[in-house]
Amino acid sequence: xxxxxxxxxxxxxxxxxxxxxxxxxxxxxxxxxxxxxxxxxxxxxxxxxxxxxxxxxxxxxxxxxxxxxxxxxxxxxxxxxxxxxxxxxxxxxxxxxxxxxxxxxxxxxxxxxxxxxxxxxxxxxxxxxxxxxxxxxxxxxxxxxxxxxxxxxxxxxxxxxxxxxxxxxxxxxxxxxxxxxxxxxxxxxxxxxxxxxxxxxxxxxxxxxxxxxxxxxxxxxxxxxxxxxxxxxxxxxxxxxxxxxxxxxxxxxxxxxxxxxxxxxxxxxxxxxxxxxxxxxxxxxxxxxxxxxxxxxxxxxxxxxxxxx
Length: 309
Ligand code: GLU
Known about the structure:
It is built from ten helices and twelve strands. By secondary structure, the chain is of the alpha/beta class. The protein is globular, with a radius of gyration of 20 Å.
């Protein structure tokens, strides 16, 4: 095996839809065609919305379209000690601060921010020790934020090109002790030796934050490939209302996972060789280059969008 490690890191909060499966397929093809390892990580920090059943369905769907992975599936809910250690390291370096803003203001911090994310205005950034003690005295528990210092981080994405942003003071740990997505993903990608991150381009804006965290923690930056989303005919991100969007939905219309795989393969660029559905797919079979993936969103075929099967 080569030194490439790719990954797919879904949140087990529902069934994977064709867009998620296409992203997973691209990540897998890229890793395997470089003779690399491919791992699956369950990002189940949010215990309210994650479930073992969703996890099982997601893994079954990946296997059904011919994807395989190396080693055990890792669950973020079992790795809090690693995230706590990374936060402690950042704190020791003066790169964090306690934030006493309300739960509502920070409740979404542990989720991957697919819908965008508002920069924190810095309310708690310069609290004095006395002010912090007073808050704690009132029984308030702090969240931990990154002291980003207004730094601009530039990343070059393989498909999107250069991406630069001023990194804001993202939450690293919620005030109920749950680590945040941006922190966990950075710790895990490094701990698992991930060298390329292929994911939906709705997560592009998170990348400068994650790269800053990597730098502060002395961790390597993987190769980033943000693939366009899959959309319905209305141009909106694929959702249940678009019709048959999961393997179960399309099976009800007589389309089996092998046909789904063919459909997805056909969307990956005319130059691409489709890979066999084999656990032993290696570079010599492949010639897959992730940079050939079309840069426009894939619109799912109209026959899958009909509301009646
Ligand atoms: N867990 C995130 C999601 O469900 C993806 C995180 C990532 O790929 O970095 O969309």
